[in-house]
Structures are given as structure tokens and as C-alpha cells.
Amino acid sequence: MWEQVKAPVVVPLLRLSVAACLAMSVMLFVEEVYLTTVPVAVHLFGRRPVHRYRCDPLVVDDPELSDTGATFPMVLVQILMYSEREVYKLSIGAACGLSWPRL
Hints:
Number of strands: 2
Helix content: 55-70%
Low-confidence stretches: none
Strand content: under 5%
Structural class: mainly alpha
Strand order of the largest sheet: 1-2
Largest sheet: 2 strands, antiparallel
């Protein structure tokens, strides 16, 4: 009975498994190549998001908002904590030390 089941059922399933493993190996290889080349290209071409996305001050006519007549948009900094009593002082201190805008 094993000889009758092995050829028509087990062998095609094993071949399908090998093909699936090969396809996943190729996908992993392509992903590794992509994840390697993108940071190298970013480093070589010197593309930095800070240089691409600079926040220009908004011109405001209200003298109470700013001494120079220009102000930056408000930024909300959220500190997510859950059962982290050891780091709450460091996190809040780091958030208070932020300077906006970062020039």
C-alpha cells in the first residue's frame, strides 16, 4: 500500500514543498539585497530627511505671538508610558529639553 501512495501523493507534495522553499529563499535574498543597497545609496548620495523637510516659520501679523512677526507651528510631544517607573524621569526630561525648531 505504501508503494501505491508514495508515488502519486507524497512525491508531488515534496516537490511542491521544495519549490515553495526555493521561492521563499529567493524572496529573502531580494529583501536582504534591498535592505543593504538602500542605506548604502542614502549614505553615498547624502540624502537626509532633515535637509529635505525644513519647516519655515509662519508669518503672523499678531505682535503678541512673536517678537519678530514669525512663529513656528505648535508641536505635541507624547510620551507613552505603561508601568515604566524607572524611565519616566528620563523621558520627561528629554521631552522638556527639546528645542523647536531644530535649526
